[in-house]
Amino acid sequence: MTRRATIASALAMLAAPALPAAPSPFAVAIRRARLADAAHLQAGRDSIDVFGSNGPRPAYWRAYRFGVMAERYSARRAVYALTPATADEAHALVAYFAERASLTADPGAAKAARRRLRKVFARPGAASAPEMPAILKPPAPS
User: Can you give the residue ranges of every domain in the chain?
Assistant: First the structure.
């Protein structure tokens, strides 16, 4: 290569815009699960708005709902399969479970979230569990 070609290629590499870093698989899985949860909730609201609380649902709507539920199941399984290796990933996971538990008034949701987080943070190579938000703390004994 000539000196001119070498300098041109070096300048081209410096002037080229840097590609953004790929998002972590953890962030992608949590985003996908949040979107699937939101789609499931919205489909339920739409179902009640359109067909009423006890009205019959047509076959196309049932197929759509099953598709939304299958995507939500798949997205949640993807989150459950990941192990948080950094403190940021651990905080994101706890925030996701706290958000899910706060969407319902069911104390069983918080209990299930605590159980799932205990299992995740007990895995080898997992980051230490961060402080749990109030929604995920067990109720005080009476």
Answer: 23-82, 84-130
